[in-house]
Design brief:
The strands form two sheets. This protein has a five-stranded mixed beta barrel with strand order 1-2-3-5-4. The protein contains four helices and twelve strands. The longest helix has 19 residues. By secondary structure, it is an alpha+beta fold.
Length: 221
């Protein structure tokens, strides 16, 4: 019995800390939408809001972007229920220019509920479940390589062609990064993302590649 007591206390304290973490206080924020933020592959996952006291960043899951952008277009005024994001003030976002991410006093929140009084519409993020994982159609395409999308550390995250956005996992980037020097055209085979709700800043459909053809040579990924 004595041996079980420390384990019981450990589990109880863990559950208590998790409950406290989940019970984050919420607050209401109003302002005008300045722009949208995006993650490493360009999927929108946050917005910049201009309030009476300055700029704040409101983060949301990427699969809710389509619904949120219908309620909160750039330039419109909204009211949002939020809770403090664990990243805290100044949490760096890929969609923010360096001069803005350097502003360490920018408050960052997690979006819970959104209301647009002028449109008389609103959404609660808990009502938008993540899409079920499923494979889209297999695509084969070739076209000009328009952009290599890299993060703030120079790591390759995705490739942009005239028709598709090609997402690259870290091990895939390491595999082909050096082969892309001077490449102007690219062949790709991969599965298209068909999950609803995502909005990418490029406007291109996203592919999960299985192979890339570079200078006539095909590399399995």
């Amino acid at each position: 019995m004595k041996k079980l007591l420390p384990s019981f206390l450990t589990c109880f304290l863990l559950l208590l800390s998790l409950a406290q973490a989940e019970a984050q206080p919420t607050t209401s924020i109003s302002g005008r939408v300045l722009d949208y933020l995006y993650n490493r592959i360009g999927d929108y996952d946050g917005l910049r809001l201009k309030t009476a006291t300055g700029e704040v960043h409101l983060l949301f899951p990427p699969h809710t972007a389509a619904r949120i952008r219908r309620v909160a277009a750039v330039g419109q005024s909204i009211t949002a229920e939020v809770e403090l994001e664990h990243g805290g003030p100044g949490y760096p976002r890929p969609g923010v220019r360096p001069s803005e991410t350097d502003a360490v006093d920018t408050p960052t929140y997690r979006l819970i509920r959104l209301q647009n009084g002028r449109l008389k519409s609103g959404i609660q993020l808990a009502d938008i479940p993540p899409p079920l994982p499923r494979s889209g159609p297999l695509v084969q395409a070739e076209g000009p390589l328009i952009e290599e999308m890299r993060d703030e550390h120079g790591r390759l995250n995705a490739l942009l062609t005239d028709k598709y956005l090609i997402e690259l996992k870290p091990h895939q980037s390491e595999q082909i990064s050096s082969l892309l020097v001077g490449v102007q055209r690219l062949g790709v085979a991969g599965f298209e993302r068909i999950a609803e709700g995502f909005v990418n800043r490029t406007g291109r459909p996203l592919l999960h590649p299985t192979s890339l053809t570079i200078r006539g040579q095909t590399f399995a990924l």
